[in-house]
Amino acid sequence: MPAPANERGQMLLAEEYFATENDRFVDALRTVRQPRALAAFADRWKKDPRPWARGQILLYLQHPLNSPGHQPVVKRLFKQAEVAGDHELMAAFLVAFDRQVRRQIRTRPRWDSDTRTVLQEEHLETPRDVIPLKAERSAVNPMTGDRITIAIRGSREARLFRYRTRYYLRRRAWRYFRQLGYRDPGTYQAALARALAAYQDADLERGENILDSWGLMHACFAGHDALKFGATYIQLKDGRSLGELTPAPRFPDVWKKPDAAPALLSLAVQARARLVRVWAMQLFEHEHANHAVELETIVRLLDHEDAEIQQFGAKLLESAAGLGTLPVASWLKLLQTRNDEALQRLCDAFAKHVSGDRLDLPQCIQLACVRPAPVARLGQRYLLQRVVNSAADREQIVGLADAKCPVVAGELTTWALGFLGTRDHYACDPVIRFFDSTVTESRTAAWTWLVADSPALGDAALWSRLVETPYDDVRLRVIDFLQQQTQLPGVNVDHLQNIWRSVLLGVHRGGRQKARAVRQIAQAILENPARVDDLLPVLAVAVRSVRGPEARAGLAAVVSVVEARPQLADAVQRHLPEMKIAEATA
Fold first, then answer.
1. I want to staple 522 with a disulfide (CB 3.0 to 4.6 A). Which of 156, 250, 405, 557 is the partner?
2. Sign, Cα dihedral of 237, 238, 242, 247
């Protein structure tokens, strides 16, 4: 019976994609359901010399083998790879055929003659054969001549071939590697490593999936005494569990050779299944504990997303040679690993092999500002060993305001303000950055420094910026402090410091004296223009107030200052960039 027109069209589309090297080829081919057409096409595909065609075979094998009618494709490609001795393709087939067998756990009753009761016993059972079919088929009604669609039962999760065939195919794929191990052990190692790297966690999600992975179990655990290898199945011996598995490869001497150590480390990095990664790490530790691992390999281990691999890399780093001469830049790169346990090991090694004089001040600050606590503590340790003397050093330690680790942020702030907040070196801009820190501990430490008789207590510019802080913890402290200072017994309300404090406090709570205080500040600026940068920020706070009276009073005061002293227009523009001052006025 000829294939329907739509199926012939799908085959033609797949052949067109194949000829033009279109990336949609594999998806189109999997929709074809014509075994004869697919058999003829597979004969051309397996002989195609283009690297692209070969790559499409590997891509095809990454998909589930569950497309109806594709038995000829799988058989022809597999036999061609086997005859040609194509290790890469055979590795892909080994993994694909292991995925084909998935036994299921079933319970069955068993009579216990000792207790004279019926016990429910679990065992692995081969599921019923399900050969996938099309979901529907078009046909002609012989009575009416109309074309109708007939639904056909099938399984979306079914795989090709009956289970007896699947068992045979996975045995045959492993036989290829077993024979290669006897014939050419060196080639066997590289070819098998490629296959092991292709297994995924989804393939080995359950214990029964691990036992059904024929090639994997023979290659990695053939010599383990907890397993019983039969002609078709692999079973656990009575009283044993999969948790006992340790590396026991089929050809142990292959993995004892010196050239196997880099292969195992590479497999630990590249393998997509945790079972394979753990196997590679354990075998390396057992057979190559004294192997000198290159730093590049350790970096790859530390950069791995798996925490176990990162810890393994950190352990290798502790015993690595040449750490004393390792450049600081390389150490800093190593400290970017994400695993906490591995990071602590790295920090211990760093402190052991790197002296403080090898780091410059920016590198110390870089370490201290990171979020992980072990690295931040390490940076703090090196910072405390340094002496900050020059203006350039003081400018650099302002960067500690960006510290992200709450554990050390407060201590770093206190240390930095000990240099930046002295009466000889105090300036508003560097200090305010610590009050703007995103870490609460930094802001708390900065406030403690401020109210402890610091030179910033009388700086109106600093307090004006503190009033506008987006952080409630700072703003509430500022309001409470200003209120306490303005209510102290014997306070001279006409003193300039108390005047600007009253303005800042009035912006938040209102008050009858705020307009008068604003005018007094404007008068103080006119009498002493040198204080414009100290007092103008106070007027800026009033101008930006959401309260109408404060905003109007502040705006009037600023205008009066510019009118009386036009040379202060630049300072007004700097502190109030949102205001536009006409040239005629300036």
1. 557
2. negative
| Neighbour-count burial for 413-442, b at 16+ CB within 10 Å, e otherwise | bbbbbebbbeeeebbbebbbbbbbbebebb
- What pLDDT, on a 0 to 100 scale, did the predictor assign at position 14? 92
Query: Do the Cβ atoms of 282 and 258 come closer than 8 Å?
Result: no
- Are the C-beta atoms of residues 428 and 394 closer than 8 Å to each other? no
Residue 222: predicted pLDDT: 94
For residue 309, give the nearest of 351, 348, 350, 338 by alpha carbon: 338
- Helix (H/G/I), strand (E/B), else coil: 106: strand
Indicate the helix (H) or strand (E) that contains 123.
strand 117-125
Residue 224 · residue 245 · CB < 8 Å: yes
Q: What are phi and psi of 112, to 5 degrees?
A: -100, 110
- CA dist., res. 356 & res. 185, Å (int): 50
Distance CA 389, CA 366 (A): 19
Q: Name the percent of the chain in helix, strand, coil, to the closest 5.
A: 65, 5, 30
Rg for the chain (alpha carbons), in Å? Answer: 38
Give buried/exposed letters for 347-366 (b at 16+ CB in 10 A, else e): bebbeeebeeeebebebbbb
Give CA–CA dist 313/291, Å, rounded: 13
Q: Is 304 helix (H, G, I), strand (E, B) or coil?
A: coil
Measured at the CA of 187, the angle between CA 186 and CA 193, to 5 degrees, comes to 100
Kindly report, residue by residue over 143-200, the tens digit of the pLDDT. Answer: 666 665 554 444 444 567 888 999 999 999 999 999 999 999 999 999 999 999 999 9
| Calpha distance 387→568 (Å, rounded) | 40
User: What is the H or E stretch that residue 499 is in?
Assistant: helix 496-509
| pLDDT: which is higher, 265 or 302 | 265
Answer for the pair 428, 396: CB distance below 8 angstroms, yes or no: no
- Number of helical (H) and strand (E) elements in the chain, helices listed first: 29, 6
Give the C-alpha separation, 511 to 499, whole Å. Answer: 13
Measured CA to CA, the distance from residue 558 to residue 539 in angstroms comes to: 7
Q: Among residues 402, 361, 401, 352, which one has the least CA distance to residue 383? A: 361
What are the DSSP calls for 236-257, one per residue?
A: EPTT--GGG-----SSGGGGGS
How many CB atoms neighbour CB 573 within 10 A?
Answer: 15
**HEC-encoded secondary structure of 442-476:** HHHHHHHHHHCCCHHHHCHHHHHHHHCCCCHHHHH
Determine how many CB atoms are found less than 10 A away from the CB of residue 230.
7
The tokens of 21 are what? 């090297």
Residue 272 DSSP symbol: B
Distance separating alpha carbons of residues 344 and 168, to the nearest angstrom: 50
pLDDT at 138: 59
